[in-house]
Write a structure and sequence with these properties.
This protein is of the alpha+beta class. The chain has one domain. The protein has five helices and five strands; from the N terminus they run αβαβαβββαα. A five-stranded antiparallel β-sheet has the order 1-3-4-5-2. The chain is globular, with a radius of gyration of 17 Å.
Length: 155
């Protein structure tokens, strides 16, 4: 891609996905983030469950509200900590991209990892792409598989 070529939607989404994020550390901060989303009537959010087919249209206001209620309940029930720490936004005051990690599949979310787990859900103002297709498994796992089964499928 050159400076004169526009970025593709896939590139834009992946650049945002790999961008800088702030963690929502306290449950009160999560409440404030949800309230910010509910108050932004001019923004149209895509709701993407990673592993499912990415949506091709933004959610309705009713779908967004229902998702926020249900994900809030799930996070508070299943993340048995007195802090949040599993929701990340590109900007807590004016978000455009939010990652929500599944409390049942955290792996190395906090700290540094060359291959962190994918989030469970993404809220984005841009149409998402299939992250499992766009971000293939680490090369060391493919090499391990090839060594184990000679590059083919198990029989």
């Amino acid at each position: 891609m050159t400076a004169s070529q526009p970025a593709s939607p896939t590139t834009n989404f992946l650049d945002r996905f790999r961008g800088a994020f702030s963690g929502v550390l306290r449950w009160q901060q999560l409440d404030a983030l949800w309230q910010t989303l509910r108050a932004q009537h001019d923004k149209h959010w895509y709701l993407y469950a990673v592993g499912e087919t990415p949506p091709d249209a933004p959610a309705s206001r009713e779908q967004l509200d229902r998702f926020l209620r249900e994900i809030d309940r799930l996070l508070r029930e299943e993340h048995e900590e007195d802090y949040c720490g599993i929701v990340y936004a590109d900007d807590l005051e004016d978000p455009a991209f939010i990652k929500i990690y599944d409390p049942g599949n955290l792996g190395v979310v906090c700290g540094f990892s060359d291959n962190p787990p994918l989030p469970g859900w993404i809220l984005s103002l841009e149409a998402p792409v299939d992250l499992q297709q766009a971000l293939p498994p680490a090369g060391n796992r493919r090499r391990w598989w090839a060594r184990l089964f000679g590059g083919g499928r198990p029989r």
